[in-house]
Every structure is written in structure tokens, then in C-alpha cells.
Amino acid sequence: MKGIPRSFAIIGFSLIATLGLTACQQGQDAASSAPSGQMAAGFAKMAPAPQRMMLAQEAAQDAAPGEQQQFIEEHRYLRFQLPEADLQSTWQKHADLCQKFDCEVINANIQTTQQYQQARATLSVRVARPQMADFLKALGDAGLVESSIDRQDRTDEVIDVEARLKNLEEVRDRLRGLLNTQSASLGDVVQLERELGRVQGDLDAAKGKRAYLSNLTEKVRIDLNYEVQPTFSDSSIIQPLIDALYNSGAVFFRSVAEVLTFAVALLPWLILLIPTAWILVALVRRKQRK
Question: Which of 130-134, 191-195, 235-239 has the weakest average pLDDT?
Fold first, then answer.
């Protein structure tokens, strides 16, 4: 008789834990659907769970007095126009800055000058936020023709994920405590291990989401584009005519190539069809003479 009440207690505990995690997940989904690019002060926030309120208060204590700590994803875009002789060296110099600063290269690509196509290069890096200002200063503004900043508030997502982590860790610890109870029956142990495995999987997923958000908010992504500086000849009034002549020639030779390909493909069939047709005509004429 002692095993029955304990089974009910385990089932009831699992149900309460599941309901609590479901409510927390709903709060996270609601936060994820908030408009991007707005600051936390402008967000229409849903009523937070008690754990979320507690974490928000702790974060606010760590921030400046009277301000709530914010987690902002920042993305910067810079476009340079340089003389063709300086493009590759400038691109390489900027890429080498990651060896000096706390940053990682996400993507680096350069294309040399080809016929009817000028050289260009791209570089994408993530820089630690405390070193962003020094990194931008080291880049310099020589040839800089365009600069833009895009920010997205991730505060609600971070708070929800941290609340979910706290919930899951507490549930995991309680399940482990129940599993270590010596009076647990075999059925209780099986049920507890199944629930513990599910909670541990949710906990690992939440940790991965938190690490992803940390990478977005603790570092700044900077995309740099490099172009050859336009010259007078590039913007000449006859350039459209030159482009039209080039395109017309390309179309003409492409058509010639297609006709030649068709003729070559038809040639084997002509070798078979012409003798066959000649034989048939000869037979018809002979029959008509008789």
C-alpha cells in the first residue's frame, strides 16, 4: 500500500513540472515574436512568470542604477571604395586585425580584376563588444563611403531562456533526489529516469540557445565590402553603347554556337536518312516503269 501513494506523488510532481515548463516555453515563444530592431523600452511585454521577474530584477541590479540590463544584437555594415592597386592590401590589412583584437573571421572573399569585371572583396567578422570601438578606429575611414548600423533587442529572449534554465535545473535536481531515495520501487525508478532524461534534453537545448544568444549579444558583427573606386572612363556616356555592343556580340556568337551544335547533332541522322531516301525513290521509279 505504501507504493501507491508514492506513485501518485511522482505522477503529480511530473505533471506540475511539465505545466511549469510549458508556461515558461510559451513566454519564450511570445518574446521571440516581438518586433525586431526596437529597444526594450519600446516593447509591449507580456505578463512575466515569477521566475522571469526575479531574473529581471537580478539583471537590473547588475546594470547601472535605474536601468535594466539590455542584451542587444548589433550588426554594422561598411562599404569602401579604393583605388584598384590598394584594394587587396587594404582587405588583407583589415583581415589581419583579428589577430590583434578579440574577433573571429566569419567570411573572407576576394575576386581579382577580370575582363569586364572589376576587383571586389568582402570580409565579415565578429568583434567583442568592449573592443569594437578600437577595432573600428584601427580600420580607419580611408575610402569609406557608406556605413550603417542595425540593432535588435534580445533582452526578452535572454531573460526567458535564463528563467527556463533555472526551472529545468531545479526540476532535474528534484528528480535526482527522488531517484536516490532508497524506498523507490522499480516502477518509480523507471518513471523517474524517463522524466529525468526528458528534462535533461530540454536543459541541453536551453543551454545551447543561451550560448547562441550570448554570441549574438556579446559580440558585434561587422560586414565590410570593398569596391574599386570609379574613374571617369567607367562613368563615360558611351559606356552603355559599349555594353550594348558587347551584349549583342555575345548573343550573336551564342546563336551561332547553338546552330553549329544542332548541325553536328543532325549529321549522323543525315548519313542514314539520305541513302535510305535515295533507295526508296529508286524503287518507286522502277515500279512506275513496269
Answer: 235-239
Phi, psi (deg, nearest 5) at residue 167 = -60, -50
* Count of CA atoms in the C-beta half-sphere (13 A) of 179: 16
3-class DSSP assignment, residue 34? coil
Chain segment 139-169, per-residue pLDDT in tens:
988 889 999 999 999 889 999 999 999 999 9
Do 80 and 148 lie in one domain? The reply is: yes
C-alpha cell at 90: 587594404
Instruction: Indicate the pairing of strand 144-153 with strand 72-82.
Output: antiparallel
Query: Contact, 121 vs 84, CB < 8 A?
Result: no
Amino acid, res. 202: D
CATH number at residue 88: 3.30.70
Confidence (pLDDT) at 193: 86
Q: Report the alpha-carbon distance of residue 37 to residue 74 in Å, rounded.
A: 9
Cβ(14)–Cβ(188) below 8 Å:
no
Whether residue 113 is contained in a domain is answered as yes
Determine the length of the chain. 290
Q: Would you call 105 helix, strand, or coil by DSSP?
A: strand
Q: ∠152-105-88 over CA atoms, to 5°?
A: 115
pLDDT, tens digit, 9 for 90 and up, residues 53-109: 333 444 444 444 456 688 889 999 999 999 888 898 999 999 888 888 888 889 989
Euclidean distance between CA atoms 119 and 194, whole angstroms:
59
Structural domain that includes position 65: 3-70+154-216
Task: With H, G, I as helix, E, B as strand and everything else as coil, classify residue 108.
Answer: strand
Reference 206, options 253, 243, 172, 255; nearest CA is: 172
pTM for this prediction: 0.52
Q: How far apart are CA 135 and CA 105, in angstroms?
A: 13
247-281 pLDDT tens trace: 888 899 889 999 989 888 888 888 888 888 888 88
Which residue type is seen at 269? W
